[in-house]
Amino acid sequence: MTHLSHPTALAPLPAGELARLHDRAREDAEALRAEAMDDFWRGANAAFAATLDTAQRSAQRLAHRLARRERAARRGTVGACGNGMPRLRQAQPERGVIGLESAISRQAK
Q1: Which of 34, 74, 97, 99 lies at a 20 to 30 A Cα distance from 60?
Q2: Could you write out the DSSP letters of every residue in the chain?
Q3: For residues 106 and 95, what is the distance between their CA atoms, to the nearest angstrom?
Q4: Which residues face 78 on adjacent strands?
Q5: Residue 6 C-beta-side C-alpha neighbours within 13 Å
Q6: % residues pLDDT > 90 (the chain)
Q7: Which pLDDT score, from 0 to 100, does residue 1 have?
Q8: Beta carbons within 8 Å of 68's beta carbon, 6+ residues apart
Q9: 0.85 exceeded by the pTM?
Q10: Residue bearing the bigger pLDDT, 37 or 73
């Protein structure tokens, strides 16, 4: 066989039928494109909403942390490093130190 046609090739379609199929293919492609765009934007909106929720939560946590720090600063309990943590009490050696032995003996009673 020296010719290029395949033995099971279909006969060419009439021009009217070919135009109808072409129009139908364009309509199908347009519908699929619209569906794909809807799916894309639905997914993009969901991803944006999830990111927005996380950002809002982070901003809210920061606002609470800053408010807590401001309250601590007004009370004068902000640590020396200014991190918003309460200042540790100074050691009071005159009160004495409870040793490990006395703590264990209290638990045994």
Answers
A1: 74
A2: --S---TTPPPPPPHHHHHHHHHHHHHHHHHHHHHHHHHHHHHHHHHHHHHHHHHHHHHHHHHHHHHHHHHHHHHT-B-TT-SSPBPPPPP-GGG----HHHHHHHHH-
A3: 18
A4: 86
A5: 4
A6: 45
A7: 45
A8: 84
A9: no
A10: 37
